[in-house]
Task: inverse folding
């Protein structure tokens, strides 16, 4: 049996923790997945996985094999890309991760435009805010919104992420319009679990204020907070890339526009410049151009 394929199957099982999920993803039978893993264990003369009826976990040997297998698979992908350098068409598969809100609002559309230019490419997009080890998960590119990106990763800025205070007309009619950031402590606030859950910061020219707020609804995704705000549940700090259209239509009102929330940046993050494939480089350049002048 093909040992590289066996390594690929093993890596997928180790990542997903499921033989069935691996079979579905790789479009092969569960029996074939089991056979590849068993053959790899036989070749290495080591048990790589601990299997129970409820879980699949790595042994010590399995953890070492996973790291080496990922390196070998990445090297093979690089070799394939380099040997096709005379061909103008980009091929292969890219794996991306991004927050659900930005993927929903902009990235999915941009990726589809990129795929239309390179029809031989395939892209997997994992939408979510959970921390992912890019190397272990074999992620080629992570799109993250941050004021302090991981220093162990290479960060390329794509766009500025402005955020503003917003609420629906219905909520403001019922609760009144805040006149100063400190007034927010008396309002129902909708907050992101990982960003400003208990305290909001604002600045107007050289004046900075910190407001302790009472959070009545928390969520781990900005799209959820937007829907709650549209439903009249309270006031939230939301990125303009997500709710700009709603402001233009009048579904949402910007509150205290002269007070600015802290800026963050939308970054493309990747582990290393050294082995960046032509496809990843092309996608990076495309995203930089795509988001250079967005009217968010």
Result:
């Amino acid at each position: 049996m093909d040992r590289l394929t066996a390594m690929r199957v093993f890596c997928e099982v180790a990542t997903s923790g499921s033989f069935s999920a691996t079979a579905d993803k790789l479009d092969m039978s569960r029996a074939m997945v089991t056979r590849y893993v068993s053959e790899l264990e036989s070749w290495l003369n080591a048990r790589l996985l601990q299997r129970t009826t409820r879980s699949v976990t790595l042994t010590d040997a399995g953890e070492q094999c996973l790291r080496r297998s990922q390196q070998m698979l990445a090297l093979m992908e690089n070799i394939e890309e380099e040997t096709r350098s005379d061909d103008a068409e980009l091929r292969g598969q890219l794996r991306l991760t991004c927050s659900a809100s930005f993927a929903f609002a902009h990235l999915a559309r941009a990726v589809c435009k990129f795929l239309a230019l390179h029809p031989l490419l395939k892209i997997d997009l994992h939408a979510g805010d959970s921390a992912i080890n890019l190397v272990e998960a074999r992620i080629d590119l992570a799109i993250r919104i941050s004021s302090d990106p991981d220093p162990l990763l290479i960060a390329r800025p794509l766009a500025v992420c402005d955020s503003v205070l917003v609420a629906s007309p219905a909520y403001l009619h019922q609760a009144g319009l805040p006149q100063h950031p400190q007034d927010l402590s008396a309002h129902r606030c909708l907050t992101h679990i990982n960003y400003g859950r208990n305290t909001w910061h604002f600045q107007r020219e050289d004046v900075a204020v910190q407001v302790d707020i009472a959070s009545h609804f928390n969520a781990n995704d900005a799209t959820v907070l937007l829907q709650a705000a549209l439903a009249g549940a309270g006031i939230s700090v939301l990125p303009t890339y997500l709710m700009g259209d709603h402001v233009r239509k009048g579904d949402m009102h910007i509150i205290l526009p002269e007070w600015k929330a802290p800026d963050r940046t939308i970054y493309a993050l990747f582990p290393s410049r050294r082995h960046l494939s032509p496809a990843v480089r092309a996608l990076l350049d495309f995203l930089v151009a795509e988001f250079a002048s967005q009217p968010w």
